[in-house]
Backbone:
């Protein structure tokens, strides 16, 4: 039980209980699970893409709109799972040496408005800086301290709240993927981000082709609705796994890669169905500890390593979702996340 009156630390005492692995030792314990089964990876990737294409085809072909809606939502859930396989491929966790996988995932990234160059740059930065205070939000949503909030100008407060607003998550298809990941990098450096131009042409070209085949209703059920839903779901998962009530933020002097994984990344508890559709991304503390572990092995790692079995937890329950947006600032004095009202100023 935590005490309010903490005595000065004794440097002669061990930092952790005897036998508990931390830092590099804990990372080393996860390395046996980096080993990939190519057949297993292809089974997960192949079955996911086949099911996704089948669901979206049904959403486009079936005449009765309620059933089209069902298949469109199913297609959105499968898009989320397909994106996790794309995400793992770019982390070199699965199918790293496959040319077929290269073309499959680069085509998927383009159609989903996730060009690989800008995604990798921002996402790798995120992995190297998770759990650090930043008002820039490179590769992640911004996170500042309560003291920084009180010292901010009205405009700075407005932009911070706007970036962390639930509407950004709900509208992540045009805002996060269309604008931030695809269009802005292209406008800033066209030569470097030609794949962003390819993504825009591919994405809107697909919309044009589907429109010619079946009109707006087919575009809506096959492309717009599933991508809107999948983008919002994926964006919220990303947001909540690094912005939740119980997360901890280390000072710049005390920050380590290990602490970012274990203290600033959540384990999102889900039922088995949602766990499958989200490709085990809820085991996010383990993913951040070792990005090379294939997504389908993450539950196995948690079962095998005791030190990973007591993570900071969040869920998809309405209260937890509300808390992820409400607790938006790190209070250095209270050593916990606080709301804007608590921060004052």
Residues:
């Amino acid at each position: 039980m935590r005490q309010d009156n903490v005595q000065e630390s004794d440097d002669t005492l061990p930092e952790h209980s005897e036998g508990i692995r931390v830092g590099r030792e804990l990372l080393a314990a996860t390395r046996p699970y980096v080993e990939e089964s190519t057949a297993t990876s292809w089974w997960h990737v192949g079955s996911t893409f086949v099911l996704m294409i089948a669901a979206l085809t049904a959403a486009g072909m079936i005449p009765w709109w309620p059933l089209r809606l069902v298949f469109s939502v199913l297609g959105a859930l499968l898009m989320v799972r397909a994106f996790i396989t794309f995400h793992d491929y770019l982390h070199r966790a699965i199918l790293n040496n496959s040319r077929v996988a290269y073309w499959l995932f680069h085509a998927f990234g383009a159609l989903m408005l996730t060009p690989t160059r800008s995604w990798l740059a921002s996402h790798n930065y995120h992995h190297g800086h998770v759990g650090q205070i930043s008002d820039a939000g490179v590769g992640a949503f911004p996170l500042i301290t309560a003291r920084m909030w009180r010292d901010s100008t009205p405009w700075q407060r407005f932009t911070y709240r706007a970036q962390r607003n639930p509407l950004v998550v709900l509208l992540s298809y045009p805002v996060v993927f269309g604008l931030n990941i695809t269009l802005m990098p292209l406008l800033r450096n066209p030569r470097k981000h030609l794949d962003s131009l390819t993504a825009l042409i591919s994405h809107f070209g697909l919309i044009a082709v589907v429109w010619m085949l079946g009109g707006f209703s087919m575009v809506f059920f096959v492309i717009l609705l599933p991508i809107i839903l999948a983008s919002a779901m994926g964006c919220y998962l990303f947001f909540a796994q690094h912005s939740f009530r119980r997360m901890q933020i280390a000072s710049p002097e005390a920050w380590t890669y290990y602490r970012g994984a274990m203290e600033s990344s959540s384990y999102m508890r889900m039922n088995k169905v949602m766990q499958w559709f989200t490709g085990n991304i809820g085991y996010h503390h383990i993913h951040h500890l070792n990005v090379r572990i294939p997504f389908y092995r993450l539950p196995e790692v948690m079962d095998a390593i005791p030190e990973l079995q007591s993570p900071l937890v969040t869920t998809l329950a309405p209260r937890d979702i509300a808390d992820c947006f409400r607790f938006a600032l790190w209070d250095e004095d209270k050593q916990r996340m606080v709301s804007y009202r608590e921060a004052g100023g």
